[in-house]
Write a structure and sequence with these properties.
single chain, 293 residues, alpha/beta, Rossmann fold, 2 domains, five-stranded parallel sheet, four-stranded parallel sheet, 12 helices, glycoprotein, Fucosyltransferase, signal-anchor
Length: 293
């Protein structure tokens, strides 16, 4: 593959410039001390996507408003594969909030430079280091100096990939076992008869997530949401005190355009950002939008 477009050991792609984690501010400081190829819409020295990534995404002549119509995730995964490191700073620094920002570079063979869930080690597949944890450094400058040392030391760099040759961690294995059991339960229920299968996929759902506990909310988004998102007719997320951070988690899974039958949406004004507005625009089927201040 032609990687002549690479100018730095680190790749960063970000389009939410006002995330609660303040990642844009962090990255501006980090980039004073180490080169980063910036392909997003935030920060400085933004680069154009390489031609082969545009082809993978199928995004030529398309805008962010049309993001649901092209292979954004596939392009990001392919781009991460070409870099030693990938910036993986979450929207929110919340327990159990771990998004594709961590999983994609791990899958691609790039080392995540991570800042996010305080309990991220409970979710990692590795027994030793497989990411660079930004919490371990007092300043972005300290982090940059360490990243430089890893990039220059082949043995040290490869140690972050050693986990790929070993069994996954005990905690991660329990997670895999848990999802395997869920899959069996769902499959057993789903195949009871054709009427049940039709019911769980076609019944309109009125979803109120105002006061759900954060742990249950995370589990719901991971396990149940993928199966029911197209059935959601009404979505209520407007309890600022209870769900201000978990709403960001909810929208990190799918764009609103993926909720093809959504007719009613309740939000807080604090939840509105450019990305969310972009995702609302194409919703011709949305009949009610309530924004509480």
């Amino acid at each position: 593959m032609n990687t002549s477009y690479i100018k730095a050991p680190i790749m960063w792609m970000n389009s939410n410039c006002k995330a609660k984690s303040r990642r844009t501010q962090y990255m501006k400081e980090l980039m004073k001390y180490i080169d980063v190829d910036n392909y997003g819409t935030c920060g400085e020295k933004i680069r154009q996507l390489p031609e082969h990534i545009v082809q993978i995404q199928g995004s030529r002549n398309r805008t962010l408003k049309q993001i649901a119509t092209y292979n954004w995730e596939g392009g990001k995964l392919a781009l991460s594969r070409d870099y030693l490191f990938t910036i993986s700073i979450e929207n929110s620094l919340t327990y159990d909030y771990i998004s594709e920002k961590l999983w994609q570079p791990l899958a691609a063979g790039s080392i995540p430079i991570y800042l996010g869930a305080p309990n991220v080690y409970d979710w990692l597949p590795c027994r030793a280091d497989c990411m660079i944890d930004l919490r371990k450094f007092k300043t972005p400058k300290d982090a940059a100096m360490f990243i430089r040392s890893v990039a220059k030391n082949k043995t040290l760099y490869e140690s972050y990939h050693q986990w790929r040759k070993e069994p996954v961690s005990d905690k991660f294995q329990k997670i895999l076992d848990y999802y395997a059991r869920l899959d069996k339960i769902f499959y057993s229920s789903d195949t009871l008869n054709s009427h049940f299968s039709h019911l769980i996929r076609n019944t309109p759902i009125y979803l109120n997530l105002q006061n759900i506990h954060e742990t249950k909310f995370s589990r719901f988004c991971c396990e149940i949401l993928p199966e029911i998102k197209q059935n959601i007719s009404s979505l209520h997320l407007s309890n600022k005190d209870a769900c201000d951070q978990t709403n960001a988690f909810f929208f990190s899974f799918y764009l609103l355009a993926d909720y093809s039958h959504l007719q009613s949406l309740d939000l807080n004004s604090s939840q509105i950002d450019d990305e969310l507005i972009v995702s609302v625009l194409p919703l011709d089927h949305l009949q009610k939008l309530s924004i509480k201040t």
